[in-house]
Write a structure and sequence with these properties.
Shape: globular
CATH class: Mainly Alpha
Distance between the termini: 15 Å
Helix content: 40-55%
Strand content: under 5%
CATH superfamily: ACP-like
Radius of gyration: 12 Å
CATH topology: Non-ribosomal Peptide Synthetase Peptidyl Carrier Protein, Chain A
CATH architecture: Orthogonal Bundle
Structural class: mainly alpha
Length: 97
């Protein structure tokens, strides 16, 4: 198991996730809690694609839209991205891959 990411790195990744959510959502991201499901601010299959593409562009990792359904909150998705980065596997795009 990879060591936990430092708090500052996790905060940065959470901020990155929030910025990328703006690519697919018209609003609500500003008030989205770290543990609040993306669906509560309107994320659906159509809006997940541009979010995933922006995450991919920003991180250099392959990010499938399905990840936004498996890791349904800012906190979960940020932790997943940090774990993938720490593991040195930037090409993983599906959970459990």
């Amino acid at each position: 198991m990879a060591p936990a990411a430092p708090a500052a790195e996790l905060d940065d990744t959470r901020a990155l996730v929030r910025r990328c959510l703006l690519c697919g959502l018209d609003g609500g991201v500003e008030t989205l809690g770290d543990d609040q499901p993306f669906a509560e601010v309107g994320l659906d299959s159509l809006s997940a694609l541009p979010v995933a593409l922006e995450l991919e562009r920003q991180t250099g990792m392959t990010v499938n839209a399905e990840l936004l359904y498996e890791y349904q909150t800012v906190a979960l998705l940020a932790a997943y991205l940090d774990a993938r980065r720490a593991a040195g596997a930037p090409e993983a795009g599906v959970a459990g891959a």
